[in-house]
Design goal:
Length: 156
């Protein structure tokens, strides 16, 4: 039996309607160019996660674990100054991905993210994202998201 604060309890939300992972992925701009087969492959590697109001998805400078795609709710992206003041960078809503760049470049999260209401999201680990995507497709997605990037493309 899972207790209320158990981290694993968030993998499967309490909501009566479960999100359709493939539909959530298809509606996300970052992944909209994927074929149906690619979307289904990625959906098979995707996990549902639930966060309550005020719960942190990740913190600034934490190693990137994967891609967060909001299915329901709103997430606030912010940075905290050395004196503790928060600077809000964005509010992300359903259909949007959160902190995509570190998924591609392997860097740390550039900012923190917190749920500002109950949030249900689709989460794809960096390893699963890489495993489900052909290297050329990863380069296409990276270039779509970061058109000014000068990083070399993966070799086939």
């Amino acid at each position: 039996m899972l207790m209320a604060g158990d981290r694993n309890a968030r993998l499967f939300p309490m909501a009566s309607e479960r999100i359709d992972l493939a539909a959530t992925l298809e509606k996300t701009a970052l992944l909209s160019s994927l074929s149906r087969a690619e979307t289904q492959s990625l959906a098979a590697r995707t996990v549902r996660r639930h966060f309550t109001n005020g719960e942190l998805l990740f913190s600034e400078n934490e190693p990137c674990r994967g891609l967060h795609i909001i299915a329901r709710g709103t997430v606030r992206i912010f940075k905290t100054s050395v004196n503790g003041r928060e600077q809000v960078l964005a509010l992300n809503h359903a259909g949007e991905s959160v902190a995509e760049l570190p998924v591609f470049d392997g860097d740390r999260y550039p900012a923190s993210a917190v749920a500002i209401e109950d949030v249900e999201l689709a989460f794809i680990s960096r390893q699963d994202f890489s495993a489900a995507s052909h290297p050329r497709r990863q380069a296409d997605l990276h270039n779509l998201h970061c058109p000014d990037s000068h990083k070399s493309e993966p070799k086939e």
